[in-house]
Amino acid sequence: MVRDNKPKLAVYKFSSCDGCQLSILDLEDELLALTGAVEIAFFLEARRKVQPGPYDIGLVEGSISTPEEAERIVQVRKECKYLVTIGACATSGGIQALKNWADVEEYKRVVYASPQYIQTLETASPIAAYVLVDFELRGCPVNKYQLVEVITALVAGRRPQIPTYPVCLECKREGNVCVMVTEGTPCLGPITQAGCGALCPTYGRGCYACFGPSESSSTEALCTHCEKTGTDKPTIVRMLRSFNGYLEPFKQVGDEYERQVGNQ
Amino acid sequence: MRNSVLYTIEKGELDKLIGILHRDGYTVVGPTVRDGAIGYEAIESVQQLPIGWTDEQAPGHYRLKRRDDDLYFGHVVGPQSIKKFFFPPKQRLFGIRREGENDYVFEATQPEPPRYAFVGVRACDLAAVRVQDRVFNDVMPDPYYAKARSQAVFIGVNCAEPGGTCFCTSMDTGPRCTQGFDIALTELKSTFTVEVGSDKGRKLLEALEHKTTDANTKHLVDLMMQSAAEHMGRSLNTDGLPEMLLNNLQHPHWDEVAKRCMDCANCTLSCPTCFCSNVEDKTDLTGDHAERWRTWGSCFTLEFSYHTGGYNRSSTAARYRQWLTHKLASWHEQFGTSGCVGCGRCITWCPVGIDITKEANAITDDVKRFRAEQERQRAEEVGS
Amino acid sequence: MITAIDQRPDVVSGDANAMSPVWARIVSRCQESSNTASYTMKFVDPEIGRRYRFLPGQFNMMYLFGVGEAAISVSSDPANSDSLVHTIRHVGSVTFAVDRLKVGQCVGLRGPFGSNWPLESCKGRDILLVAGGIGIAPLRPAIYQLLKNRDQYGRVILLYGIRSPQDMIFKEEVEEWMERRDFQVLITVDYPSENWTGPVGVVTKLLRRVRVDSRNTSVFVCGPRVMNRAAAHSFLSHYVPEDQIFVSLERNMRCGIGQCGHCQYGPKFVCKDGPVFSYASVRNLFGKDEV
After folding, report:
1. pLDDT tens-digit profile of B317-331?
2. How large a percentage of chain B has pLDDT more than 70?
3. What is the predicted pLDDT for the residue at B110?
4. Is the complex ipTM higher than 0.90?
């Protein structure tokens, strides 16, 4: 059904790798249906033509890492009826939030020849730290089917069916054999939100928590177990501090292990 | 001691049996090695059975090991039971197309289930099918389940060497197949003994070269079963267990388990009797096509107990307690049987190795200790 | 023990399976309060309309195309089988979607599910109905039946608690009921308006205004969790026996047929053992947290 007055969609980029925006273009079969259901009004990565706001749905990729971004996101919020963050950067600060544990000035000196030109904030933060977010879609990158589900649900006026339970449910439904139990591989699946279809365990690897902590993520219980079965504390800190290390409870437990490492 | 007639077939006859089942149009499912474990998959011949393999099982631990013989069934149960064949993990219940403003048309619904022949099913898993029947077949039959179930053939295998997390003896479901099979095998060195459990099973036996088992061999099978029953990796004290658990919903041990439990739901998903599911309604982007899906759910997820007023079970302790008390206690009131068959999967496949037998026993032992202490104090008071 | 369960009517569902709906058209809508409306529906297939029966207290699963499904009690007169009324408070994804529907549009229905108010076995007794807010909806079919067979019961009393006078649903009918001499109706509000002259406070406070013959009273309670608990305990303290206090409970119901497991309440499936329970049958669970 082709609708008149289709909802207008805007896609914004902040500090990020563009991977989540790419997953929109990656929709292939569904892309036509998407353009049938919504008007893609602002999406610089896909088309130069820009329609002015306000927009019905704003998809935001990336974290807030610079003073300019901190100002721009406020404007973005104003021009979107629904604001949806897509991906780990926008939802947790992403991999660049690792700088939140480091000395930014030192990083600048080491990385850049002329650090005086670099404008950056002390921290890389999720969008929700700056403005109200209506829905956060997890993943590094997001799962394209989940992305379609969120847009579909917003267009249909219902709640998106995005599970918040752990990866293990998807993993077992896929019929995978548990890599923790058969190989002793540390796997973050039990404490990570589903959505990827248990991609890594399906290929025999442990989960890296691209989708961030699950609804009741028992991070401590998993880390205690990993420690008991031979994973050392620094490794545990590194396990937790990846794509979503700045989200609770990963942050708190990671910090606690780091403190213990420091005390050793 | 079991007073049924046993027959003996040469080992080679098993392949013939699989061939017959194939020829009769069955999808033959049997244990086979995949991804470091022995699970139930579709098989074509005896060669795909885990010949010469065994499994080492402990809480949160499973490793394949080579045997020093070439037994076909020298292992116990794997990561998942045959539940997935009757109650698929993801199932489309229906699709609806909207035509015009107000006209809805149902689209092709559930597919017809294949005709399954299960080879090498253990007594605990056979018992589990009967437990799930009470949910999906006995009162308001689920069409897919009922069909798949009614046309299935079950070739059971008696367990001679229980695994490290097995406790079927405690739950009175094994190690010997006693019901729910068409044929039950006991594996010996170069032969199987065969017990017939149904007319279907008798017909299958008749197609094979068989003879009546001699008294010595029969005695040997009995001894093997007796020895298996005595070598369970785990045991659960079921005496008065339902009341004991339901009367101790506030016991501090629930909180203790909650510190270790990750709410990951692996126990429920590997359990052969857990039946909870999520119902998901979806639409496509056009908004004119909707589907309803049923997927395996779990009482360990927070959203499982969500309703408008909030979450009914918001803590890990409450969710673990719900699962354990459901399985071992309230199942009796719901379905007239325990929900546990003692297969040990929830123990092996819990990534952190939480042990249902240990946790239940911890509570009953503590309550008993407490009661004994009260008794003693009372006796002392009377005495003084 | 529950005293005699009335024979439950057959469940109506779509051709696909017990999880698929049949269609019903909204023939009228009545706004009851700011967030609540009553929808009168007729089954699109008249044959189903002829067949469909329900008992007071039972519910249907209501499906909104592409949105999802919610358990909604039937609020109309069971004797009037050619139209069906659902009174809905718009609070969730499905009920908001109902709110957006226009008269003439369709919803999916399957049901009726669950247990009912035990009107048969309570004949000859005083009936005390306690409703909180939208909780009056599943009690209304029972009220119709009680008033229709008025001579078969002792006193009939309704205690109705609402947040504020504007939140009263079935307003005209409640006023008619208040006119009747054979039906005592007492209403209390949490937040009175300026011209409210009636009682203020929780519904259990109304108990002071009625005489409860503990040996001959059956109580039907339906309201929010806290109210259910308070009401049940008040009646117990008035010596009404446990097996004569009936409470309608709410849980998240997904299938209605005891197969999805979501609505479990201890050993009970609220969708098929409930929603109406005698206090005696849930004594060990009632009011407990996190079960």
Report:
1. 999 999 999 999 999
2. 99
3. 77
4. yes
As a whole number, mean pLDDT of residues B248-273 equals 96
Spatial neighbors of C37 by CB under 8 A, at least 6 apart, are: C29, C30, C31, C87, C88, C90, C99
Last residue of a domain, one of C84, C113, C142: C113
Looking at the fold, whether B13 and B75 belong to one and the same domain comes out as: yes
| Average pLDDT, rounded, for chain C | 93
Choose among C66, C104, C291: nearest Cβ to B249: C291
Do residue C134 and residue C265 come from a single domain?
yes
Mutual angle of helices B253-260 and B316-325, in 10-degree steps: 110
Share of chain C above pLDDT 70, in %: 98
Residues of B in contact with A27 (CB under 8 A): none
How do residues B194-221 score in pLDDT, each as one tens digit? 999 999 999 999 999 999 999 999 999 9
Cα–Cα distance between B380 and B362 in angstroms, integer? 27
Q: What is the per-residue pLDDT across B101-135, written as a single tens digit (0 to 9) for each?
A: 778 888 877 789 999 999 999 999 999 999 999 99
Does B365 lie in the same domain as B226?
Answer: no
B48: containing domain: 6-90+114-230
Domain final position from C59, C85, C113: C113
- The tokens describing C76, both together, are 């109309």
**What range defines the domain where residue C84 resides?**
22-113
Q: Residues B189, B61: one domain?
A: yes
In a domain, residue C233? The reply is: yes
Q: Are residues C152 and C88 in the same domain?
A: no
Domain end among B185, B211, B230: B230
Contact: A37, B286; criterion CB under 8 Å: yes
Strands A39-43 and A8-13: parallel
Q: Is residue C209 part of a domain?
A: yes
Say which residues have a Cβ less than 8 Å from residue B334's Cβ, sequence separation at least 6: C267, C269
In percent, the amount of chain B with pLDDT more than 90 equals 89
Q: In this complex, is the C-beta atom of B372 within 8 Å of any C-beta atom belonging to chain C?
A: no
In this complex, how many residue pairs, one in chain B and one in chain C, have their CB atoms less than 8 Å apart?
Answer: 122
* Residue tagged 């504007």 (tokens): C166
The pLDDT-based confidence of A1 (bands split at 50, 70, 90) is very low
Judging contacts by C-beta atoms under 8 Å, the chain B residues touching residue A181 are 60-62, 79, 348-349, 351
Q: How many domains does chain C have?
A: 2
Residues B202 and B142 in one domain: yes
Structural domains in chain A, sorted by start? 8-156 (3.40.50.700), 167-263 (no CATH)
Both B181 and B155 in one domain: the answer is yes
Identify the three-state secondary structure at position A114: coil
User: Does C278 share its domain with C148?
Assistant: yes
* Cβ contacts of B298 on chain A, cutoff 8 Å: 165, 169
Q: What is the pLDDT of residues B297-355, one digit of tens each?
A: 999 999 898 887 788 899 999 999 999 999 999 999 999 999 999 999 999 999 999 99
Task: Write down the mean pLDDT value for chain B.
Answer: 95
Cα–Cα distance for residue pair A207/A202, rounded to 1 Å: 10
Model confidence pLDDT, tens digit, residues C152-182: 999 999 999 999 999 999 999 999 999 999 9
Residue C121: inside a domain: no
The H-assigned helical ranges of A38-143 are: 67-79, 88-92, 104-111
Q: Are C22 and C13 in contact (CB under 8 A)?
A: yes
Tell me: do C170 and C231 sit in the same domain: yes
Across A50-70, average pLDDT: 96
Contact C260 B322 (CB under 8 A): no
Residues 201-240 of B with CB under 8 A from C: none
Domain boundary among B187, B209, B230: B230
Report the percent of chain C where pLDDT is more than 90: 88
pLDDT at residue B129, rounded to an integer? 98
Question: What is the tally of structural domains in chain B?
Answer: 2
CA distances B254 to A212, B268, B359, Å, are 27, 17, 9
Q: Taking the mean position of all CA atoms in its chain, how far away is CA A219?
A: 18
